[in-house]
Each structure stands twice: as C-alpha cells, then as structure tokens.
Design a protein that fits this description.
The complex is a heterodimer of chains A (285) and B (277).
Chain A: H1 2-11, H2 14-39, H3 43-63, H4 67-85, H5 89-117, H6 125-131, H7 139-168, H8 170-175, H9 180-202, H10 207-221, H11 225-249, H12 255-284
Chain B: H1 2-10, H2 14-40, H3 43-63, H4 67-88, H5 95-117, H6 124-130, H7 138-167, H8 169-174, H9 179-201, H10 206-210, H11 212-220, H12 224-249, H13 253-276
Helix pairs in contact in B: 2-7, 2-9, 2-11, 2-12, 3-4, 3-5, 3-9, 4-5, 4-9, 7-9, 11-12, 11-13, 12-13
The chains are: A mainly alpha (285), B mainly alpha (277).
Chain lengths: 285, 277
C-alpha cells in the first residue's frame, strides 16, 4: 500500500512522468538496435557517434540553433562517413578513434565559443550534454522523443531479417541479392538518430551503456535473435524505470548514474554467476 | 630572433614551464606505449582506460587526494578488470567489446556521480575531461617524469617478447613466452601512461596523444625502433605546438592537441598512399 502511494506521489510530478515516457522510448530503440550493434561488432562506432553528438549539440548551441537539430545533423553525417570509410576491420579502430577524438576536440572549441559569446551560455551546458538531464526534458521534447524512439525501433525491426542475413553471412547475402552495404549504412543512420535522442536521457558519454550493455545481457540469456532483441529492449526499459525511481528516492544520485549503474551490476552478476556455480562443487569435495 | 621572443613569451610564467615539461614527459611515454597499442589493436581498451581516468580524478578531488594518484589507481585497477572480464567473455566473439563498453559507461557515470557529490566540481569537470594548461604543479612534473622513465625502462625490458607476442601469438606461446602475463603487464603499463596523459589532455582526449602519433608513425615507417622514435617525435611536436597555440589564442588545449594530431595522422596516410602509388 505504502509503495503504491510512493509511486503515486512520484508520478504526480509532471517532469517525472515526462522522464519516464521519454526514457521508455529511448530505451526501447536502444535495446533493439543494441542487439545488432553487438552482433555486427560495431560497439566502437556507437562510442564515436555519441561523442560526435556532444560536438553537434554544442555547435548548435554556439550558433543559436535548436540542440536536437545539431545532434541529428552531426550523428547522421558521421554515420554515413563511417560506413564509407570503414573498409577493413583493422583500420576501422584507428580511423574511427582518431576521427572522433578530433570531433570531440572540436566540441570543446564550440563549448568555449558558446560560453564566451552567448549571454545565455554557461559552463555547465557541456556537462548536461555529456551526462544527460532527463528530469529537465520538457513536454514537447518528451512527445518527440517517445515517437521517434518507437519509430526507430520499428524501423530496425523492419530491417531485421535482411540485416541478420547480411550480418551473419555477408557473402551469401550479397550473392542472394541483398544490398549488404546499403543495409549497413541504413542501419548506422538509424543508430545515429537513436544516439541523438538518447543524449537527452543518459547523456552523450553514457549512451554506450544504454545501447551495448542490455544487448550484452540479452546475449548471455538467449541465443535466438528475436527473443534476444525483446530481452535487450526489456532490460533497457526496466533499467530506465528503476533508475529513475532510485534517483527520485535518492536525490543526490543523478538519474544517468542510477540507470548505468543498474545495467553494469546486472551484467557483472551475469558474467560472474556461472563461474561461481562452477566453483561450488569443488568446495564441497 | 622572432623565435627567441616567442619562446621567451611562452616560458615567462612558471605554469607554462610546468606545462611544457609535463607535456614533454607525457608525449614521450605516450609515443612509446602508443606504438604498441596500435600494433596490438588495443585502441579501444586504451580509450576505455582513459574514460576511467575521469572517476579517478574526480574521486581524488572528492576525497582530497592527489589527482595523479586517483588516476593511476583506478586506471590500473580497470586494466586488470578488462584483462579478467575479457578472459571470461572470450567464449563469445563479441563479448570483449561489450565488456569494455560496459566498464567504460559505468566509469564515466561514476565520475559524474563523484562530480555531483562534490558540488564545487561541476565546472572543474571540463578541465578533467578536456585538459587544461593551468594547475600543473612542480611536484606533478617530477612525478610524471619519474613515471615516464620507469615505464619506458619496463617497456625496454619487455619490448622484444611483447613484439613477438603481438605479431605471432601462437608461435610465441609455443616458444615458451608467457603470452597472458605479457599482455596483462602491457595493459598495466598502458594504464599508467593513460593516467599520465590524462593530466594533460583530459580524460576524453587521451586518444590524441596515445594513438594519433603512433598511428601516423606506423603509416610512414615499418622498422619498429625507428617507428617508435618517430612516434615519440611526432607526439612531442604536437604537444609543443598545442601548448603554444592554446596559450597565444586562449582557446582550450584539447582542441589543438586533437586537431594537430588528426592532421598529422591524415598527412601520414596521404604520404603512404602516394609512396605506394
């Protein structure tokens, strides 16, 4: 009864409701896309995209444009460039890494321009972009975020069959007439949009946790693709809900930390559990 | 004459002299370690370790400890974490990147928690993440120099077997070289040099000093000793140029380090392509 009353009081705040709604949309899309990112070995690309998101957001702020426009422009552009650049698996790491380090450096420049030239500019703007501010998301943004989140999840599901084929057997898929390269680019562009959305919830630096960790958890639980996608999305959504609740109950804890901390704990527990089980019989002997 | 004037202007203040000394020590260390990082394809791990630098430095501020200590302890701990988690996840091909990515996101989140707990730090976050010219003390310079010398000596000891292991792990293992132990030892050295680099470039931009000069050197030269020397030289040049421009223009140093590094890397790719054609 008491728990119910607590939930009711928490959801009585409009900003909390907004955070729950927007967070659910982002988590749904991140979970579904994360499954493919892990399968395709593109975790590093997400990392690059999320850093680019920081630069896009601050460039937009420095130019006085909407933050979301800057986010989307930057992430989509880089997603296309990445899918063109990455020709061999080994070069990919260094090329991606160098490019995104430079882009991040550019973001620092924009931040300093923003802080020094705009009267509304303040030094904490960068921190909000980096670590998210889901409790300050605002009603119009909430609707956009949840609609885009659901749309992106559906789009990934629409690509799922050919994408699975192209990922697991690229050669056979190409011979079968599946446009492997175009699919790869389309998928990265969807990931770019998801990344831009997720910046508002967990922040540019923590997106990797929301996208890669639920998928890694799901992959440990099931090998079947669609079940893994559903599990991954479910884990991400649950982490966002519980994380937001914890952060509401313990105000010093930033929501993004609560969300990422929960996912990290679950992952570590799942990795450690089978090892502990293996140790136990030896102890009995 | 103009150059002497410029040098006089740059080195007039103690904080700039400290920055130059610390930057040079870090660039030399990063140049050596970075070459092996690129060779071994461990750039993602290097990047993760630098993310861990953020909670290290923020936690040190929160608990009133020296930043370099916090950085070194947390980076080394997570290097060992990556080594053991990576081994657990070896069974599935995609486990290792997921494990590294998970650690990375959690580390950054932890840093943010520390920064939020220490209220005054919220503006200092920028310095820790993106580097700063200011605030490098004489004691830090001495520590960084000592760290660089020790790490390079350690690298000199393990460099031959490490090279063997990096190029042909199976042959090295059958020749009786302890592959696992060497890999862990190198990860620890990498962690220490990441900690040092973070003081100059900030936690998010260590890639610029750790990977870019090394990757450029690898494009240009194939012989290991020459390539390592070139990597060091490029790193030092990038740091000096960045410090000078940041001081003269008043824009953040992180922007210049990454820009000069990226330009050097792109140029080296261009030169290689031309020489191959």
């Amino acid at each position: 009864m008491e728990a119910l009353a607590w939930l009711q009081s928490m959801l009585g705040h409009e900003f909390i409701r907004d955070a729950f709604v927007a967070g659910t949309g982002v988590a749904l899309a991140s979970g579904v896309a994360g499954y493919f990112l892990l399968l395709r070995g593109q975790v590093f690309a997400v990392d690059a995209l999320s850093h680019v998101a920081f630069t896009g957001a601050l460039a937009a702020l420095a130019a006085g444009v909407s933050e979301l426009v800057g986010l989307l422009a930057a992430t989509i552009l880089v997603a296309v460039v990445l899918s063109l650049l990455a020709t061999e698996a080994r070069a990919r790491d260094v090329v991606t890494g160098s490019l995104f380090a430079w882009v991040l450096g550019l973001g620092v420049l924009f931040q300093s321009v923003y802080v020094t030239t705009r009267s509304t500019g303040n030094g904490a703007a960068g921190v909000h972009v980096l670590f998210g501010s889901v409790f300050g998301i605002g009603p119009p943004q909430t609707v956009i975020t949840v609609v885009v989140g659901i749309a992106m999840a559906l789009a990934v599901l629409l690509l799922a069959r050919p994408l699975l084929f192209a990922t697991i057997e690229a050669g056979a898929a190409a011979a079968d007439g599946v446009p492997v390269r175009a699919l790869g680019t389309a998928f990265l562009v969807l990931v770019a949009v998801i990344t831009a959305e997720a910046v508002q919830v967990v922040g540019a630096l923590l997106i990797l946790g929301l996208i890669a960790t639920p998928a890694a958890i799901a992959q440990r639980l099931t090998a079947r693709p669609y079940r893994a996608m559903a599990t991954s999305a479910g884990v991400a959504i649950l982490a966002v809900w519980v994380g937001l609740g914890i952060s509401y109950a313990v105000p010093v804890m930033p929501p993004s930390f609560a969300i990422i901390g929960l996912l990290f704990g679950t992952y570590v527990a799942l990795v450690a559990a089978p090892r502990l089980r293996r140790l136990r019989p030896e102890m009995h002997e | 004459m103009a150059i002497a004037d410029l040098a006089e202007q740059l080195l007039r203040y103690a904080f700039m002299r400290n920055a130059f000394a610390a930057g040079t020590a870090v660039a030399v260390l990063a140049g050596v370690i970075g070459w092996f990082v690129v060779l071994r394809g461990e750039t993602f791990a290097g990047h993760t370790l630098s993310s861990v630098g953020f909670p290290g430095a923020a936690g040190a501020v929160l608990f009133g400890l020296p930043q370099l200590l916090g950085l070194a302890v947390l980076c080394t701990a997570s290097a060992l974490g990556i080594a053991s988690l990576g081994r657990v996840a070896e069974g599935d091909r995609y486990g290792a990147p997921a494990a590294i990515g998970t650690i990375q996101a959690f580390a950054l989140a932890l840093g943010f928690l520390f920064a939020s707990l220490y209220r005054g730090l919220l503006n200092g976050v920028n310095g820790i993440l993106f580097g700063t010219l200011l605030g490098i003390t004489q004691a830090q310079v001495v520590l960084l120099a000592a760290l660089a010398v020790l790490s390079i000596c350690a690298m000199a000891v393990i460099s031959r077997p490490l090279l063997y292991v990096s190029i042909d792990p199976d042959a090295a293992a059958s020749a009786g070289i302890p592959v696992k132990a060497l890999s862990v030892a190198f990860l620890v050295l990498l962690a220490l040099s990441v900690a040092a680099t973070t003081l100059i470039t900030g936690a998010l931009l260590t890639f610029a000093l750790l990977v870019m000069p090394a990757a450029a050197a690898q494009q240009l030269v194939t012989r290991p000793p020459v390539a390592v020397l070139l990597s060091v030289a490029l790193g030092v040049a990038i740091v000096w140029l960045s410090l000078a421009t940041a001081y003269l223009t008043d824009y953040p140093i992180g922007f210049f380090v990454t820009s000069f590094g990226f330009v050097v890397y792109l140029l080296s790719r261009g030169v290689r392509r031309l020489s191959l054609a």
